[in-house]
Amino acid sequence: xSSNGFKDRVAIVAMGCTKFKDHWDxxxxxxxxxxxxxxxxxxxxxxxxxxxxxxxxxxxGSGMAGVTVSRPxxxxxxxxxxxxxxxxxxxxxxxxxxxxxxxxxxxVMAVGVEKLKDSPxxxxxxxxxxxxxxxxxxxxxxxxxxxxxxxxxxxxxDNETMRxxxxxxxxxxxxxxxxxxxxxFRKGVSKETINRSPQxxxxxxxxxxxxxxxxxxxxxxxxxxxxxxxxxxxxxxxALSLVSxxxxxxxxxxxxxxxxxxxxxxxxxxxxxxxVSNPRSEISxxxxxxxxxxxxxxxxxxxxxxxxxxxxxxxxxxxxxxGGALPINPDGGLKSFGHPIGASGLRMLFECxxxxxxxxxxxxxxxxxxxxxxxxxxxxxxxxxxxxxxxxNLG
Length: 395
Known about the structure:
This protein has helices at residues 28-41, 67-73, 88-101, 140-145, 147-155, 159-177, 191-195, 261-274, 279-282, 293-302, 311-316, 333-337, 341-357; strands at 10-17, 54-58, 79-82, 107-114, 199-201, 204-205, 215-223, 235-244, 285-287, 370-379, 382-391. It is an alpha/beta fold. It folds into two domains: 10-117 and 214-233, Peroxisomal Thiolase, Chain A, domain 1 (3-Layer(aba) Sandwich), CATH 3.40.47; 140-207 and 238-391, Thiolase/Chalcone synthase (Peroxisomal Thiolase, Chain A, domain 1, 3-Layer(aba) Sandwich). It has a nine-stranded mixed β-sheet with strand order 3-2-4-7-1-8-11-10-9, sandwiched between helices. A two-stranded antiparallel ribbon has the order 5-6. A hairpin with a 2-residue loop joins β5 and β6 (204-205). The model has no long low-confidence stretch (mean pLDDT 95).
C-alpha cells in the first residue's frame, strides 16, 4: 500500500468545536451551526460561508445525505456525507483535503456531528446490515477488553501491574480533561476511584471506557499557498493515511489481540508521507483513539511511540503524561473529552489547532512542531485506521 501524498499542499485555516456533553437542548442541526459559526468567526471576516466551494460532513447516525449540513447552514452547495465507523470525522477531513489538493476546489469545509444522548439507545446507534451469521456478536467493551489479558500474557505482566497501567492511562486522561473547558468530564479522578469503579467487561471498569456524548466540529481547508490570506497561524497537512483491514483477525487463529495491523500500516504510510523517521522523538504530541484504556496502551506500540512489549513501562514512567516526553491526548481524549462518533476525528485536529496557535490554555505545550491524530473504527481484528500528521510550519 502506498500513495503519492501531498505534504504541505493544503492547510487548515480555521476550526470550530462545540463542547462535548449531553446537549439535551440542542439538535444535530444546532450543533453543526455552532461549530461552523465558531470556525467562520475565527477568520475575522476574511471568510464567509458563501466563499466555501464544497462540504464534507461526517456522521454515523445523525443525518442522511448532504442536507445534514446544507439545511442548518442554509447553503446550496456540493455536500458529501461520509461514514466510516468511528473514523468518520477524520475521513470527512481526508476527503475535503484531497479535494483541495487535487485542484478541484479552492476552499472547502469538513464537518463532523453526532447526537447520541437523546436517542433510546446509548452508544453506537447504527444497525449492522444483514450478514451470513458469522459476525461476532459482542459489545464494544467486550471486544476491546480482550486486549488487556492478551497483552499481559504476551509480555509477562501480572494482573496487578496490568491494572496499574490501565489506571494510569485513565487517570492521565481525566487530569488532562480537567484542564479543558469543552470536555465532557472535567474533574480529575483519583487512582483509587478508578480502581474501585464498577466493572463493565473483563478487566474494564467504568473509568476504562470513553464517554458517550453529543458534539460537532468543523475545519476550513485551502491550498497551502493561500493559507496566510486567512490566518496568521495556519496548520499544514503533512500526511493523511487511511487503511481498511480485511477483517482476518476475526477469522484466523493466530491473531493475538496485542496489535491492530491496520493501525501499524496506516502509521507507516503516514510517516512515509510526512518524512518522519523517528516518531517518538519527532512528534511533539498525539491525539489517539483511546476508546478504552487498553486500546491506548496497544496504540503506543502500533504507532511506533514505544518498542514492542514496552509501552506499559513507558506509561508508568510518565512518558505520555502532559509533562512527559511525548504527551498523549492533552485534551483528555475520547476518555474524558467524549466521543460523538462523527465529530471525534475533527476534535483531535482541533486540539492540534489550539496547540499550534498557542490557545490551549492550561494544557498548552511548549513549542509544538508536529502533531499526530489517530482515529480507529471497528473492533480488534476488523477495523479501519486513520493517521494524520499536521504541523505549524511548511517543510
